[in-house]
Model the fold of this input.
Amino acid sequence: MDVLARQELPGAETLFGRPLTALEGVREILASVREGGVPALLRWTRTLDGAALGAEDLWVGPEEMEAARERVDPALLASIRRARERIEAFHRAEPVPHAWHRVDSDGLVLGQEVRPLRRVGLYVPGGRAPLFSSLLMGAVPARVAGVGEVVVATPPRRDGSVPPAILAAAAEAGVARVLRAGGAQAVAALAYGLEGVLEPVEKIVGPGNLFVTLAKREVFGQVGIDGLPGPSEVLVVADATANPEWVAADLLAQAEHDPDASAVLVTASEGLLQAVEAALARQLQRLDPQGDGVARRSLERWGKALLCRDLAEAVAWAGRLAPEHLELAVEDPWRWVGRVGAAGAIFLGHAASEPLGDYLAGPDHILPTNGAARFSSGLSVETFLIRSSLIGYSDEALRRDGPAAVRMARAEGLEAHARAVEIRLEAGGPGGADEGPAPGKEGEA
Ligand SMILES: NC(=O)c1ccc[n+]([C@@H]2O[C@H](COP(=O)([O-])OP(=O)(O)OC[C@H]3O[C@@H](n4cnc5c(N)ncnc54)[C@H](O)[C@@H]3O)[C@@H](O)[C@H]2O)c1
Ligand SMILES: N[C@H](CO)Cc1c[nH]c[nH+]1
Ligand SMILES: [Zn+2]
Done:
């Protein structure tokens, strides 16, 4: 991501009036919406998405969402509902932290409060394709966690409308309102708020392209973020039992998301590698007869086929690259699962095509990319919860722990810390009568 962020942004002269990198462009957009509010947001929406909206058009409300439910094909609506149910069932089955506390025999109270976030911003990609499935993948676990309000932001089409399938999915998932804004400008609106229109949210979740992902990284600290789920990735580890047509189809499925998406095959079978390359060429011709499609550009830039000595080496490579999606298209996937170092989601066996996970298998499809699976995971109910530690001292527990705390504070050179505890010890604890310094202790260091 950093390589792309630092490259000169094509078209920057027209967009920003001077040459800029993608990261500089994103910073400029964020600053302009932070300072300029709604007019700046509308200006970027016109420039980048071609939609000339007025301030009164910013929101899609519940009525338009309900109407969208009527407009989508009933079979599609039923599929969206089925997907919502499957995603919800998966997230309800997840282990989540619960509030707890315990009281020790000396009266020390220790525990954790757990509460859902109050307001979350959910980015739903819409630049190349209206990813209503990503809306479900963000809004459903938020709801399971008990989040107070989920504000969705998604880029409008050139006529200013939001695709009905996105609105229908929003209605199905219980989302109250949708902001017609995309890209870094939408991230700015969610993070900084829009005066009189939108309060800043506490956390921004959801996937997006390079601009969205860079913007989320920039606003982190001002608000929380779920991670950096950027351009899609698939890495297929395949053995000679894999069907080359199926493997090629799964590589193309992720490549079609974005010219920045990546699709990689790792195998120890030279025969399979050649068969997949031939299948790819054939399928790409059918998918993109003009020869200028997204999948072709993605494969040219980031597509790779690696030939390894054996399957163990192939799996080791997969773990090192830590892809968003790993397919184990091998005879005995369970033999290898435990040896995968890192991956956002692991698909087991020949039938488990990645797009099934994109839509309705159940686990979340908002997953770390760009190697971030080494240290982070996909969206879960826990993404929407915060924990607060609970600490309560009795007189007895204070007498036991206080002297050690005082000693440690003085060793760190923090006299005020030491005195804060000592003053209570001198008074004999919360139950003691004396609020002032103990006789004879004044001036002691
Ligand atoms: N990792 C995951 O979990 C996951 C899940 C779903 C989708 N995705 C990824 O989400 C992405 C969706 O991308 P998309 O582009 O279709 O939609 P998007 O909604 O993420 O981005 C569209 C926005 O990009 C901005 N933009 C476009 N060109 C720009 C420029 N030159 N300068 C500044 N801003 C610009 C515009 O504001 C536009 O509204 C894909 O990369 C896809 O692979 C990832
Ligand atoms: N493959 C994407 C995650 O990288 C998710 C998605 C949504 N719709 C289709 N695919
Ligand atoms: Zn996909």
